[in-house]
Each structure stands twice: as structure tokens, then as C-alpha cells.
Write a structure and sequence with these properties.
Elements: H1 2-9, H2 12-21, H3 26-34, H4 36-56, H5 67-74, H6 77-105, H7 110-122, H8 124-139, H9 190-193, H10 199-209, H11 211-234, E1 238-239, E2 243-244, H12 245-265, H13 273-299, H14 312-336, H15 349-375, E3 379-380, E4 383-384, H16 385-406, H17 414-439, H18 449-471
Antiparallel strand pairs: 1-2, 3-4
Helix pairs in contact: 1-4, 1-6, 1-15, 2-6, 2-7, 4-6, 4-15, 6-7, 6-8, 7-8, 11-12, 11-13, 12-13, 13-14, 14-15, 15-16, 15-17, 16-17, 16-18, 17-18
Length: about 475
């Protein structure tokens, strides 16, 4: 497992390439704003450290206090590989901060910025120290509260004092009147998006509003049904030599649920019309390719990801399939980042908080999906990684459901937000317990502390769901009298 995590960490080089070679590209700006690659490395680290603690026990933390203890720890292959991912994650985070700060203030020209970022990639502290020294010399202050006072520009391209095109608004020199902030898309209000009086009507109306995504989700169920028919005609869920029809049914159905869910979330994001169209276009393209690969290859009797029986083209398409999954993950990050801003859904703060917890669960699911692709299996010994994969994605329905049951009429009350915290934390504990149980190689039902953690999390979320269902009314407080 640890070698697979190390290999997956190499994908972060793509992020470094964008920062170094394409600093003014809009996609680079978006990825830097979301810190997608540091988050990806942190997820890999989380998976690795849970595995290490499961194997060696929490007693290894005591070895951090002495040089001999650290040397002994790093002599262990798993610990060394996880420690390396630790280093990669924070090197990348420092690189993103240097990039964002300099693209906004332009203390150094772009070529010098690229050299500093390369130094950060290769010798992390050296790159940071170099940029810090230049920044201190230019500002005459050692204050390092970087990247404050604005957001990355996604449209305007101001010119820096050095005459180069800048992707970020610059901070004016001292004594200069502050320029007005660039206009940003107004955050949609829940009551302006959800105007039906019943949950069912509200969902159907939102799906009608996002017809393309709704149709894409329904297509997943249709493909799952078609694959089930193929299995019935064939008389088996397996087609020689590698085709696993049941896995294709699960994949198409799960992706269909995911797409239908994001179709409900998309209208609440402050995307521009153009940005929304582009997001949907990418989502449609990547999802259609994923549907096709999983379904068609299974019907052909091939493993869509790591085929040993297919030809060179099938193997190449398997690699593209993996990249498509990464693309869908990036689209998800872009979709959810607005909900981590204060102005998101201003009239329904409990739903905003619930979506943040849901995003955390879904990122766990994306991370374990990447891990399963890397190891070519859903299991580690008797551990079932698919349970965490499914549980993480279902956070997108489980936690927001509680917020909707509690309603929007009194969501500014601390008690209401406390219930959301309890539900969100409970679901994340459930996911972490499932993941730790699987990474330790234990069967899902084996009595362990991780299973107890799963049960505690499930009870926490379930208690809040029952309470909110009995106490609240879905969509309460958002609609004029009928």
C-alpha cells in the first residue's frame, strides 16, 4: 500500500508544472486558489498515517522526542514513505502560498518566481527562505501574513509595476488610494433558488433547471440496468477474461447518484453563466467517458483500468480513465470551494456548514478511489475500501439532509449549528472508522476500536437525523404563503 501511495504522490508534479511553467493560466490560478494538490497529498498522508498507526500503534509518537527514536522510525520503510509524503504536502503548500502572494504583489518577476518555486520543489526551506528574504527587502518588514486582502482574479489581468501581465490584483504602494475590488458574482440565496413548497417539488424543479446534469445522472441508471440485462442474458456477472459486470452496475449507478446530487448543489454556487457552462461541459465530457469505459470494457470482458488481456489501446485508455477521475475530483473541488466562503448561501448558514462537512467526506471518497485504482483492488487483506468510498460520497446526501430538515427559519441559532456540527462530525467519524478498519486489513464486522469509532459516528449522525426529522420541517421559513 505504501508504495502505491508514494506513486500516487508523484501526480503532484503536475501541480508544480502548472505553477512553474504556466503561472498566468486561468486553470493554474483556480488550482492554486483551491490548494487542490496540497489537499490531495494530505489525503494520501492521512491514509498512510492511519495505516502506520494501525500496524505499529500510537506508541511510536513517543519516538519523536529523540534523535535515535526518529532514526529508528525512519528505518522502517512504511514510516519513511509516509514521512516523505508529509514533506511533499508541506513543500507544495509553501509553493502555493509563494505563488499566490507574488502573483498578487509581484515582489519578483515571473521568471524569478519560477526559479524560486523550483527551489521550493527541490529544497523546500531554501525556496521559502529566498522568497522571504526578497519580500523583506522589498517591503522592509518581516511580517509574513501573506495572501491577505483579496481573492485571485479570474477575469481581469492587471499589469504589474514591472510591466508584466499579472493574474492577481496588486496591492497599491503606501499612500496610494486603494482601488475598488473587482466585482464578484453575487452569492445565490437559498430562497431564490429553491422556490417550491415541498422537498419533492423542490428537487424536481432543480433537476429541471439543470436538465443536462439530470439527464446525465439518469443515464447512469440506464447503463446500470442495461448491464444487468447483459448479465442475465449471459447467465453470469463475469465475462471472460476480466469483465466484471456487477462492478460496472455499481459504478454506473453510483456515478448517476453523484451527478444527480451535484445537479442540486450547482444552482447554489456563485458561478458566472459562462463559468457554469464550462463546468457543466467538462463534467459531461468526463462522465460520459467514464460511463463508456466502465460499461463497454466490462461488456467486452476487459478490466477498464488495469487490463492484462487487452491491447495497447485498452491499456492507454485505462490511464486516461484514471486522469478522467482526477478531472472529476478537480471539478468537485471547484464546485465546493465557494461554500467555504462567508457569503455563501447567506440565508441558510446551516446548509452552508453541512455542505462543508459533505465536501470533507467526498474528498475522503475521492482519495480512497485513487488508492483503489493504484493498488488495482478494492480490498487490503480482509479490509473493504469500497465501504469508505461509498460512505464518503454519501456524505453529500446525509449531512445536507439534516440541515434541510432543521429548516432555514432559525439557522442562526447556535443550537442549530451545533446539531449540524454533530451530524457532520459523526458522519466523518463513520468514514474514518471504515477507512481505518479497511487499511488495517480487517473485515468490516471484526470487533476493533475502529469499528467502535464507526458505530459512534453512525449513532451521532443518526441521532441528529431523527431529532431533525421529528422537530423540523424541510425547507421551512423560505417561502411566501401559497
Amino acid at each position: 500500500m505504501y508504495h502505491a501511495l508514494f506513486s500516487l504522490a508523484g501526480l503532484a508534479l503536475l501541480g508544480w508544472a502548472l505553477l512553474i511553467f504556466l503561472p498566468t493560466w486561468r486553470l493554474t490560478r483556480r488550482i492554486a486558489e483551491t490548494a487542490a494538490f496540497p489537499l490531495f497529498l494530505c489525503l494520501l498522508y492521512l491514509i498512510g498515517i492511519v495505516g502506520v498507526l494501525g500496524e505499529l500503534g500510537p506508541g511510536i509518537l513517543a519516538d519523536f522526542g529523540s534523535a535515535d527514536g526518529v532514526l529508528e522510525l525512519l528505518a522502517s520503510g512504511p514510516v519513511a514513505l509516509v514521512a516523505w509524503i508529509h514533506i511533499l504536502a508541506f513543500d507544495h503548500l509553501v509553493g502555493v502560498l509563494v505563488y499566490r502572494d507574488n502573483m498578487r504583489h509581484r515582489f519578483v518577476p515571473l521568471p524569478v518566481q519560477s526559479l524560486i518555486l523550483f527551489a521550493t520543489l527541490m529544497l523546500g526551506p531554501v525556496g521559502f527562505l529566498t522568497y522571504w528574504a526578497i519580500r523583506v527587502a522589498r517591503t522592509r518588514t518581516a511580517r509574513v501574513a501573506w495572501d491577505q486582502g483579496g481573492t485571485m482574479s479570474s477575469s481581469a489581468t492587471p499589469v504589474s509595476t514591472s510591466g508584466e501581465a499579472s493574474s492577481f490584483p496588486e496591492t497599491p504602494p503606501p499612500g496610494t488610494p486603494a482601488a475598488s475590488s473587482p466585482p464578484r458574482e453575487r452569492a445565490p440565496r437559498f430562497r431564490s433558488v429553491v422556490t417550491a413548497a415541498s422537498p419533492l417539488r423542490a428537487v424536481l424543479k432543480l433537476w429541471r433547471q439543470e436538465r443536462v446534469l439530470a439527464g446525465l445522472g439518469v443515464l447512469g441508471f440506464a447503463l446500470a440496468g442495461a448491464t444487468a440485462v447483459v448479465a442475465a442474458v449471459h447467465g453470469s456477472w463475469f465475462i471472460e477474461p476480466e469483465g466484471r459486470l456487477l462492478e460496472a452496475v455499481k459504478f454506473d449507478g453510483a456515478v448517476g447518484i453523484y451527478v444527480l446530487t451535484v445537479a442540486l448543489i450547482l444552482p447554489l454556487t456563485p458561478f458566472s453563466s459562462r463559468g457554469r457552462r464550462r463546468w457543466v461541459a467538462w463534467m459531461v465530457g468526463l462522465t460520459l467517458f467514464s460511463y463508456g469505459m466502465e460499461t463497454v470494457q466490462a461488456w467486452r470482458g476487459l478490466n477498464p483500468r488495469f487490463t492484462a488481456a487487452g491491447g495497447p489501446l485498452d491499456q492507454a485508455l485505462g490511464g486516461v480513465f484514471f486522469l478522467a477521475a482526477l478531472g472529476i475530483m478537480v471539478l468537485f473541488i471547484i464546485l465546493m470551494v465557494p461554500f467555504f466562503r462567508r457569503h455563501a448561501i447567506p440565508d441558510h448558514p446551516s446548509l452552508r456548514l453541512a455542505l462543508r462537512y459533505a465536501a470533507g467526506g467526498a474528498m475522503l471518497a475521492f482519495g480512497v478511489g485513487i488508492l483503489m485504482s493504484a493498488v488495482g483492488d478494492r480490498s487490503i487483506a480482509d479490509g473493504d475500501l469500497m465501504l469508505l468510498h461509498a460512505g464518503g460520497f454519501h456524505a453529500l446526501q446525509a449531512v445536507p439532509l439534516v440541515a434541510l430538515f432543521l429548516g432555514a427559519g432559525d439557522t442562526d441559532r447556535p443550537t442549530t449549528m451545533g446539531w449540524i456540527h454533530l451530524a457532520g462530525a459523526g458522519w466523518l467519524l463513520l468514514c474514518i472508522g471504515l477507512g481505518a478498519q479497511a487499511l488495517a486489513g480487517w473485515s468490516p464486522g471484526r470487533p476493533t476500536p475502529f469499528l467502535a469509532l464507526t458505530v459512534v459516528g453512525a449513532l451521532g449522525w443518526g441521532t441528529v437525523l431523527v431529532y431533525s426529522g421529528l422537530r423540523g420541517q424541510p425547507l421551512r421559513g423560505n417561502y411566501p404563503p401559497r
